[in-house]
Amino acid sequence: MRFYSVRRCAVSIFSSLALVAACKGAEGTAGGGTVIVGSAQDPKTLYPPTADSYQAREITELLFQKLADRGPSLNTVGDSGYIPRLAQRWDWSPDSLRITFHLDPQARWQDGRAVSAEDVRFAFDVTTDKRTGSRIGAELRAALDSISIADSSTAIAWFHQRSPEQFDELTMSLTPLPAHLLRDKWTDSLAVSAFSRAPVGNGAFKLVKWEPGVSLEIAPSASYPGTRAVLDRVIWTFAPDAQTLSKQLMAGESDFVESLPPDDANAVAKQPKLRLVRLGSYAYNYLQFNLHDGATDAPHPLFGNRELRRALTMALDRQLLVRSVFDTLGRVGLGPFVRAQWAADTNLRQIAFDRAGAARVLDSLGWRAGADGMRARNGRPLAFALIVPTSSTPRVNYAVLIQEQLRLVGVKVDVQKLDFMAMQDRLKKHAFDAAMSGVGATPSPSGVNQTWTSTAAAEGGFNYGRYASRTFDADIDSAMTARVRGRAMALYKAAYQTIVDDAPAIWLYEPPIFAGASARLQIGPVRPDAWWTSLAAWSIAPGGRLPRDAAPTKAP
Amino acid sequence: MRRFLLARAAQALGVIALVATFAFVLVHVAPGDPFVDSLDDPTNTGALHADQMHRWGYDQPLPVQYVKWIGNLARGNFGWSHSRNRPVAEVLRATIPRTLLLMGSALLLGVCAGVALGTWQAARRGTVAERISGALTMALLAVPEFLVALAALAIPAATWHWFPVSGIADPAGWDSMSMIARAGDLLWHLTLPAGTLALLAAAAISRYHRTAMLAVLPEDFVRTARAKGAGELTVVVRHALRNSLGPLITIIGVLVPALFGGAVFVETIFSWPGVGRMMFDAVHGNDYPLVLAGVIVGTVFVAVGSTLADVLLALADPRVRMRA
């Protein structure tokens, strides 16, 4: 009774005034509704060339259109399955070194100006300019020579050389920019200009307001020539704490949370008013061995030996590890790729779990178990340090479980939990024995070139364990230049098999990525690598409307 | 009094300079930098990273960077926030008022509740109720801020839905609200974060104030008031309470830095977009200029709080003024 009174008082005192406005809003015309998205952080910038973070990508891709977009098949070879966006159509030259894009004459910037070929060329120039500091600029520069203008609505892309993914590299990396607004500004100041915080785009949505650390609101753009977005507005609210985001969703304060921690995913699944949306996992995590002794070129005293690495892989029950950390939600890693990529091969020959077999191999290598069960050779214990970033709970959990499983075969693992930056520092200096690492991937399998080939082992590369295999390098190189997808798949498979057999890492898991959504949302199919691509078609179920769905009105 | 204020201001400036210098060195020698934000992104190449470091001057020797930073600071230029892509001054202009609102509300609530509780405990000394309340306040003092905040988030907000889980305002309705409705909405969002900080402040204040009251209650003037027939409430509130408020000013001065420290946790958990949350984001992203600005703001809060306490004490107690 007392609780009831307290609750009634609290609700009536603190929210009655706020509800006056909400009720006023509810009287407005029934529009498409409002969706509130809970996100962990701000997008930092809305300037497409430097929009590197996940949040920046999702919002800029709603405000700006590319020339073409990947279709549901997520193919990255050739132009099969690509959906025309700013470009109505495109033609290939016979030698594939030139692609001519014919722009949609209806396409407009949100200030009313037509999108022109000059906007495409301008975007290429600033994105590839080193002063912009664009991460995609280097890739674009490597693939493309230039962009020329045939007429105001025809842009021609000239490539250095033909490659199977040249279309994907161009269309995914280049976002046309309004040259008429930006041409007179210094290139190196564009990334920090007012435009980067309040851009004029050409997409289905326009930016309404952005209060850093608080919220960001977008609404359908009147200048967009395509079908108008169903929703009246989409509002991102930012909360750095994952628990807070989950609780916002459960309390009905948000409608969609783009990434739920595994524990909260299970809780959300049990709520009738909520549902889980499985997104594609474009990351794979692994225990990485340093194949060299620190930063020297000498082989690592333990992990320089291929058979030892294979034995350690054999000693781990990876299926059990996934179940222990992610329950039924996770998947075992299969190699340096993710299942969502078109070149993924789930039938690769894996190093199967066999604890007794692992013990036999270790015995044969001279690592004998002592009285305490721990192995040693010539007085040197079979022990190594495993570094793990404290910022990742799954990785920390994995490290502890691995420590226990390897103890059962007489291997001592010293788990060292490090701050994220300290971990990164150790990796870059190759100052580690083994590390709990992860790689973010894209639908293109060619990213493996930047993380596992011998060129990536050079200074500044991402092959921190410095794995080097000529066979692997050659297969990846050939796969990246194969023009027929079937041939490319075969080459990728051969490369994957080589690296899985060499075991420079133990492929542990593909982290499950779950979004949480209110059951009142009618979402439809979600593209696994980018949930926001279908946002314009989202709607509110007729029975699920809330006062906040009323069209916004100005304050009296 | 002017000399006193000038001396305190000079002292505060010295403290700020020292803390800022210390923070500058620590931030720069810690692993990482503003442009290494992901281990998992192969597109952030070494060459690109080096370009960015050069462009922003982070590849220069530390003393050179320090002199430039101090020079800019002297001109009122706090630098550029890499994580928020805007001038640091702009970020501070947005966040400081929110933190002042949070801390001010918490302090006001905490002082009122703490004084009331401390007074009541002193007046009821030795009773079961006083002992239980004393144990409870001790327990509260022992609990870290973030645990109290998490409990507040989990129960009154997420379970009972009495208050919003996070944020500073209703993101969907704010623009449509009248001024009065906005004030109500802000108050509604403020309740849990301010309440969490206030609870901890009240627990601390009540302990000190109880002791101060116990020292005053046996005084002759209190006995005289009773002898003259004043009621117990009048004796306690009008005579004893007024004479025990001196130490409270000092405690408030001490509480300001504690509240600011607590605000970092509370703002992060409740997504209150103030200086504490800004610091959390800045440290997370190695945003050097923003971290340093946050440290300076925090030090200023502490210095101002401490100076204000000294001034109030000097105003309230002529003996202190004379010594000063």
Summarize the helices and strands and which ones pair or pack:
The complex is a heterodimer of chains A (556) and B (324).
Chain A: H1 2-26, E1 34-39, H2 54-63, E2 68-69, E3 83-84, E4 87-92, E5 98-103, H3 117-128, H4 135-143, E6 144-151, E7 154-159, H5 166-173, H6 179-182, H7 187-190, E8 205-211, E9 215-220, E10 233-238, H8 242-250, E11 256-257, H9 262-269, E12 274-279, E13 283-289, H10 306-314, H11 318-326, E14 331-332, H12 355-364, E15 368-369, E16 375-377, E17 380-381, E18 383-389, H13 393-407, E19 412-418, H14 420-428, E20 434-440, H15 470-481, H16 485-502, E21 505-510, E22 513-518, E23 521-522, E24 539-540
Parallel strand pairs in A: 1-10, 1-11, 18-19, 18-20
Antiparallel strand pairs in A: 2-3, 4-5, 5-7, 6-7, 8-9, 9-10, 11-22, 12-22, 13-20, 13-21, 14-21, 15-16, 16-17, 23-24
Chain B: H1 2-29, H2 46-55, H3 62-74, E1 80-81, E2 86-87, H4 88-123, H5 128-142, H6 145-159, H7 179-216, H8 220-227, H9 232-243, H10 246-269, H11 275-284, H12 288-316, H13 318-323
Antiparallel strand pairs in B: 1-2
Helix pairs in contact in B: 1-12, 4-7, 4-10, 4-12, 5-7, 6-7, 6-10, 7-10, 8-9, 10-11, 10-12, 11-12
What does this entry look like structurally?
The complex is a heterodimer of chains A (556) and B (324). Chain A has 556 residues and is an alpha+beta fold. Chain A is 31% helix and 21% strand. Chain A has helices at residues 2-26, 54-63, 117-128, 135-143, 166-173, 179-182, 187-190, 242-250, 262-269, 306-314, 318-326, 355-364, 393-407, 420-428, 470-481, 485-502; strands at 34-39, 68-69, 83-84, 87-92, 98-103, 144-151, 154-159, 205-211, 215-220, 233-238, 256-257, 274-279, 283-289, 331-332, 368-369, 375-377, 380-381, 383-389, 412-418, 434-440, 505-510, 513-518, 521-522, 539-540. In chain A, strand 18, helix 13 and strand 19 (412-418) form a beta-alpha-beta unit. By secondary structure, chain B is mainly α. Chain B has 13 helices and two strands. A two-stranded antiparallel ribbon of chain B has the order 1-2. In chain B, helix 1 (2-29) runs antiparallel to helix 12 (288-316), helix 4 packs across helix 10 and helix 4 packs parallel to helix 12 (288-316). The chains are: A alpha+beta (556), B mainly alpha (324). Chains A and B meet through helix 1, helix 4, strand 10, helix 8 and helix 14 of A and helix 2, helix 4, helix 6, helix 7 and helix 11 of B.
